[in-house]
Every structure is written in C-alpha cells, then in structure tokens.
Design brief:
112 residues, alpha/beta, 5 helices, disordered C terminus
Length: 112
Amino acid sequence: MTELVVTLDLDGVTDKAGLMDRCARDLRLPDWFGRNWDALADSLSDRTVWPENAAEQGMRIVVRNWRPYAKARPDEWETAQEVFAEAVDRTSALSVLLALGGSSQGASDLLV
C-alpha cells in the first residue's frame, strides 16, 4: 500500500502563526489543534488525527516553498525542522521531505 502524500505549502508564510495555520489547513488537523510546537509534534506523531486513510497507509509530507520562511525566521525554521525530525523518529509511518524547487517535484528535487 502506498503512503498518502500530503503537501505542506509554505508559500507566503512569514511567521510561526502562519506556519501553524498552514499546518492546520494542509495537514487537516482538528479544530482543537493548539498551534504551538508541542501541539504540532503531538499531532504529527498521533495517527488518530492524520487525514483519512493515512493511519493505515502511512503519510509522506512534502514541504514546499519553505526557503523564504527559513530565511526570514531562521530560529523558528530550525525549531520546525526539529519538530518534524522528532515526529519522524517517533512514528515509523511518517516521512517529511523538503522540496528544493518551486514547481512540481520529483524525487531528484527533494531534500530528504
């Protein structure tokens, strides 16, 4: 069975609040998602809040358009990467990939 691929598009994100809003929208997190680093880590590691079928299939998150946010808020981006890495370490069915280009991404355009 193939993993569910979800795109987390950070185009236009300029701060942590924007990142959390985009995570809530693109990852289809529940309304009670706390929009903080701990809540994001918990949600990424909790298969019960993943999109439909992802719990059974596994989930691959492709993060696009992240470079402007990383440049504007390097400390926040470092924390975001730590949260993604921790969630992947805790949850074998989860992968997070950083897309390097700006258009449709193939495997050669991903930073794993």
